[in-house]
Amino acid sequence: MTATRKLVPAASLVVLALLTGGCGTDVDGGGAPDGGSSQTPVAGAEASAEPSPEPTAEPEVEEPEEEPAPERPTAPPEKSVAAGTVAEGSAATAEGKGDAEVTFERDGEFAVVVELDCARCEGPTVLTGPDRMTPFGEADGALTGEYLMDVFQDSEPEQSLWVAADGPWSLRLSSWNDLTPEPGPWSGSGSTVIFLGGDAETAEVSWTPAGAGDSFQGRYFGTEEAAARMFGDSEEFTDDIELAQPGVLAITTDGEWSITPG
């Protein structure tokens, strides 16, 4: 790849999150303030002489049971697996079964693409790390996806990931500078990291959630620090986003998404 994306100061994405907000548009439903009809009665209309029908009992609706949330680890697992060193042109790998802490070292100034394959996992599955409030990914069973870490300039070379899983898993760790540029449009489902290889300044982003509780988060990094963007929503949306290409986009979701260059 000829262009290297810039790592960003640690405070940059915090500021972007506060300024950007969600992608969805607030829609006024037009209802009356008290929740009744917003229509105005026609002047002079006579009231109906027929008595109002007796109210009937509403049918009982059985609410679906909530699926238990995956158990998020709060301390590193006792088992440790060393993945080795990640360098440009040289990926590191690790595999195991059950809970484990995966350690690795980053040789260079670049963000790390994490590919998790836990397709045969049966119990709650979580991929997270130290000091993370939100996991990279989590599911009630099988979990596969690509995630992006170490995007800040002050990221330490020595890093670790925590895998909480009931079953076999594998991890591949590589430099984002080893990603292959992909011409648009782009589409898919689930969490991934893609190199938008076009030259457009904007893109239309559409997203459909996989179900209740799903959300979309996009983190974008171009060849200049000013191109960094964070955007997302918890409701289905289609919106034009300023994405000065080329650049790397990390998508975190369970749902389906599409990206069309502007």
TrEMBL record:
<feature type="region of interest" description="Disordered">
    <location>
        <begin position="26"/>
        <end position="100"/>
    </location>
</feature>
<protein>
    <recommendedName>
        <fullName>Lipoprotein</fullName>
    </recommendedName>
</protein>
<feature type="compositionally biased region" description="Low complexity">
    <location>
        <begin position="41"/>
        <end position="51"/>
    </location>
</feature>
<feature type="compositionally biased region" description="Acidic residues">
    <location>
        <begin position="57"/>
        <end position="68"/>
    </location>
</feature>
